[in-house]
Design a protein that fits this description.
Strand order of the largest sheet: 11-12-13-14-15-16-17
CATH superfamily of the largest domain: Metal-dependent hydrolases
Radius of gyration: 26 Å
Number of domains: 4
Strand content: 5-15%
Largest sheet: 7 strands, parallel
Shape: globular
CATH class of the largest domain: Alpha Beta
Structural class: alpha/beta
Distance between the termini: 54 Å
Number of strands: 17
Length: about 575
Amino acid sequence: MDKKQISKILTEMALLMEIKGDNPFKIRAHENAARILDGLGENLAELAAAGKLTGIKGIGQGMADKITTLLSDQPLEEYDRLKKAIPAGLLEIARIPGMGPKKVKAVWQELNITNLEELEAAGKADRLSGMKGFGAKTQEKILENIELMKRFQDRYLISEGETAAASLYQALKDQPGVIRCEIAGSVRRRKETIGDLDLVVSAEDRHRAAIMDFFTTLPGVETVKSKGDTKSTALLSSGISADLRIVSDAQFPYLLHHSTGSKEHNVAMRQRAIQQGLKLNEYGLFRDETNISCADEEAIFRELGLDFIPPELRENYGEIEAAAQQTLPKLLEMNDLRGVIHTHTLWSDGVHSVEEMARAAQKLGYEYLVISDHSKVAAYANGLNAERVKQQQAEIDAVNARMDNFRILKSIECDILGDGTLDFPDEVLATFDLVIASIHSKFGMTRDEATRRLIRAMENPYVTVLGHPTGRLLLAREGYAIDHHAVIDAAAELGVCIEINANPRRLDLDWRFLKYAKEKRVQIAISPDAHRIEGYDDVRYGVGIARKGWLEKDDVLNTRTAEEVLAFARKRRQ
């Protein structure tokens, strides 16, 4: 097991203990240990082998023993006992927003509810509203959230899909007989959520059976749903279904294009082929019965009179017309980013210190870091009051003095209050280099109310960036409804940047509105919203969404130098 898997188990143990009613200190110890592992920069296995786990603040001998057991892939008896004592369905119920451990325990003990279906039936029968701590509104919200979960069933975050697909790709690409191997499907298109995985391999006929045997017996394969010489489907231990298709090397480009999709893009491409007297499908590009030889995808597009269309753009959002007119954008690249915007530290709900976050960003090649801890109303996240703001800014000054060729910019993720005003007065906001304004409460507004709230916040001249505009949590919570075009129009008029929150659970602003923002010349910030050093890795998901939204280097705020970002913020204030 790796540290992420162990952290997940410790978090699950804490939840099971809380449902069971165990000692609160024991519960917190497991929660804290999970959080420590999430933020751990060193190699966990090496620390354990050297007997240094207890040297980590917050990890005692008992917890170190549990971690060591899990690292060695041995069963953890306490974990197994908890799973036997608590019905497995309660963990699924605990995933419902608003269903904390106390509520889960209440429905289990008072109504003998042990799974999602029983909870839904109880809600529809009005059996929840009379329980202590529930009420009619809570019951209604629970039912709404169950509907959301059902709708998102068998969907996975791009981060989960990418990790699983990359593991399969790494295993397959060097197998004997494999000529070419690529990840296709929605992972290749960088969709924010995926349904399953698609991998395409080219090989000679004589190697197909051995490659399929290898694929279907990989360690991560839970069940083989179907198996053949040309296609096999495996259910992975993560729950994701993966398809592997094997074709000849001559057919590889056509199948790769077809399997990458989307469906709408493929239909439009086939229509273009028909208009030119051709036929395009997953097996080839044909004139009458003759297959036009294409060595790669670029050749397919060229034969159809098109520039190469990057996979991220293949959604039938005008990319074929642009490719025909040679007006496709030169899409943003990871190495175009010069700084990291929107990060948290120990001053609020982050895991690492100001200096640790700064040095990690510098090590990754960035030139500057925008630290934006929470404002005071976010008490749940240890939000800063005005006095603590001064203390944090003094620390940033001190760290900046120790850094060479790197700069930390002072920022705040300032809560947008219900009426659209900000959590700090202007005299406090004026002390920051830039301000990120975000909503974290009162999600139940109408579309018009939420839109007015955002626009009023952006009208404050100290607001530089609008953070995660809809507050959505992918596969968990719908964003609050807003008029995206009105918000983008206001940002364009006011000179406010809008964030793509790159956390794979958010990816908000939605890519479908980025093309409009680009047309309106609204700057976009790609922000990992990192609460720990590892959170910097999420930047790549934001870049994927930016590319889906047709963004180029000049469209993105953090492709600029630190001085240029400061100038952008100053222009707003003038």
